[in-house]
Design goal:
Strand content: 15-25%
Largest sheet: 4 strands, mixed
Distance between the termini: 46 Å
Strand order of the largest sheet: 8-7-9-10
Shape: globular
Number of strands: 12
Number of domains: 2
Bound molecules: zinc ion
Protein name: Transposase
Organism: Streptomyces cupreus
Pfam families: Cas12f1-like_TNB
Structural class: alpha+beta
Order of helices and strands: HHHEEEEEEEEHHEHHHEEEHH
InterPro entries: Cas12f1-like_TNB
Radius of gyration: 26 Å
Keywords: DNA-binding
Length: about 425
């Protein structure tokens, strides 16, 4: 959104009020006897608080109701075993956001090819970048309309995300080819038909360590290094217990801006690539990787610490950097939208088996990048990630696919059973 400094201050105040409203609500809810914790009582408490505490009144009434709604939903998620119990929101760790729960208040109008105008409660009319077609005016009806919005702040400023309801026709079954995909070490997404998806940004630096800033250009990398050195220098003057100077804070903010840019480039590439894959292929097969457990297992336990921890967790880190979990989530809903399906196969052995002759021979994986079959009479060699992707597709064709990955699996737990017992 294009905002004036005054508008930024107003929305900041709203976001802080929303966060504080959450904290007050949580305090109130957990202090109250269980039989008096009702939605109606919480609603009355919020109304009273908005009347009596003037800095809470900067939050529009609808946004305050949205806080209550999300808070109650957080408890429901906890009771159904999907998440932990809601907690207080800390000032510096929480993403700043404000809800605009009613679509009709927004009065969206397109004023330019790239710009639109929107009404925000208690802020006024503001301009936003028009990046996607929105169902407004003649394009909107009961089934296709904007039902609300959410303002979110990151290091690059305030953004608006619209919540949209649309009616889509059931897609025709996809008739494209099948493909296996491997979350590669040398290629971000290796495909079994060799149409690998690469963003041309190596995950590793020449010395073998993971490059966490690969989405930045050389100039930006140099700038980041300079900023980090400056931050370290300024921090060295800070005495224990002293507040960060505003100069140090400004440097931190500049670093955060660069990181936010890199993050946005990564997710843009991810969206474009997964859309392309869902359009092209009817059946997409992926490995079922348990990334948090891979990182945990590399670390090992206190009694039995892992071997080659740095090496293994370095490998895992480059996997989690490519955000494999999010890629799978995107592929799940995008294949469904295009009439295709996503399947998961068990991971063990896919990187060690030769996809040409089917043998698993010791030492065939010569390096992270190269696979050479040691079976006499085969001797196939090629990219190791490509080989794994072909194995993934092979496992699917042999009927080893796990339960189709349609939608999110929810582990239901009977009420009153503690997680450990249920497990
Ligand atoms: Zn072979």
């Amino acid at each position: 959104m294009a905002l004036t400094p005054a508008q930024i201050r107003l929305i900041d105040a709203q976001a802080h009020a929303a966060r504080t409203a959450w904290n007050l609500l949580h305090d109130w809810w957990t202090m109250l006897p269980k039989d008096r914790r009702t939605l109606a009582a919480a609603d009355a408490a919020i109304r009273q608080a908005r009347k009596e505490i003037d800095w809470l009144a900067v939050l529009p009434a609808q946004a305050a109701q949205a806080v209550l709604k999300t808070y109650f939903q957080a408890w429901k998620n906890c009771w159904d075993g999907r998440s932990d119990a809601p907690n207080f929101k800390a000032r510096f760790r929480t993403v700043m956001s404000v809800d605009v729960p009613q679509g009709r208040d927004l009065q969206i109008k397109r004023v330019h090819r790239r710009w639109g105008m929107v009404n925000l409660p208690k802020i006024g009319r503001v301009r936003f970048r028009w990046t996607k077609d929105l169902p407004i005016g003649k394009a909107s009806d009961n089934d296709n309309r904007i039902t609300g919005a959410r303002l979110i702040k990151d290091a690059l400023g305030w953004h608006i995300a619209f919540r949209i309801q649309t009616l889509d026709a059931v897609p025709e079954p996809h008739t494209g080819p099948e493909v296996g995909i491997d979350a590669g070490v040398t290629i971000p997404l290796a495909l079994s038909d060799a149409h690998h998806q690469d963003h041309g940004r190596p995950a590793r630096l020449p010395d073998g360590t993971a490059d966490r800033d690969k989405w930045l250009n050389p100039d930006e990398k140099a700038k980041l290094l300079r900023l980090e050195q400056r931050a370290a220098h300024r921090k060295s003057f800070r005495k224990p217990g002293q507040k960060s100077s505003s100069r140090l804070k400004r440097t931190y903010h500049q670093i955060a801006r660069l990181r936010a840019t890199a993050k946005r480039r990564a997710s843009d590439w991810q969206h474009q690539t997964t859309t392309h894959l869902a359009r092209t292929y009817s059946v997409i097969v992926v490995e079922k990787l348990d990334i948090p457990n891979m990182i945990k297992s590399a670390r090992g336990t206190i009694e039995n610490p892992g071997k080659n921890v740095a090496q293994k967790s370095g490998l895992n880190r480059s996997i989690s950097q490519e955000a494999w979990g999010r890629t799978v989530t995107m592929l799940t809903y995008k294949t469904a939208r295009h009439g295709g399906t996503l399947h998961k196969v068990p991971a063990p052995g896919t990187s060690r088996r030769c996809s040409m002759c089917g043998c698993t021979t010791p030492g065939s994986r010569e390096s992270q990048a190269v696979f050479v079959c040691k079976n006499e009479g085969c001797g196939w060699s090629g990219n190791a990630d490509h080989n794994a992707a072909r194995n993934v597709l092979h496992l699917y064709r042999m009927g080893h696919a796990l339960v189709p990955a349609a939608g999110r699996a929810v582990v239901r737990r009977p009420r009153g059973v503690k997680p450990a017992t249920a497990r």
